[in-house]
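Per reviewer request, we include the raw input and output of the structure prediction for the construct analysed in the revised manuscript.
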Amino acid sequence: MPEWIPMLDERTPPRPNGIIEPGPWRTADGTIMHGLYRRSSIRQPPLWTEGMAIWNGWLQHQWTGPRMPFSSLWISPLNEIFSQGLGTENIPHQHAPGWSDTWTANALLSGLKPFGRFLYAEQRAHDWVRLAGAAGLAYNVTPIPANPAERSASPQVRISAALTLRYNEIFDLEALITCYKMALAPDIAAPHVQALQIISDEFISMHVMAPPENFETHSRAVRGLTLGYDPTLTAARILTDAAHGHLHPTDDPAGRS
């Protein structure tokens, strides 16, 4: 059976200080696993890969998909896992309300995500906007109408933000397109390849002012790249979409990304 190979990623949170009981996942020598891991798939077709995110020995998220040898500073499985709040049941600090929104806000400021959307308390948003301006991000702040039934809740806003760069300035799109052509059947890959070619010279920040529903009309390959998601996970979802006849399924109805 192939061994799990650790993947270095600066988004990986530090190990806890020992107060929290570790989970059961260990390496062959008994070391507590922590972070991202990959291995060749043992259940899927050749050239497929398996991946998992582990926090202090607890499995947070696991996936399998076509091997996509594409890398970028702005691409990571953790961009999706953390911003969507996937598999937080065994991760105490990530199970706290608003953790995913805070992570996305900080990831954008740190240049770890090309584009993202998150919810913030209005008071916190003022500080974030000041930092976003200093970081050179394009952003849009939309107030969320108050819920009369929650009078004690702090006013919230929805923030969209992105790098002020073109896709082809930070991504090797030709390499990504080659990966999709190799991983998917020609008829499945074709619309995604065409979509990536079309947006090549566009600014990533074009999504900031556009309504969220407009974003969902783009191909999954474009949406995944824009959000900094791992293309292996994106390709796997494209195959699922094709099997069910879906072209543009919504990624997150709650508007977080």
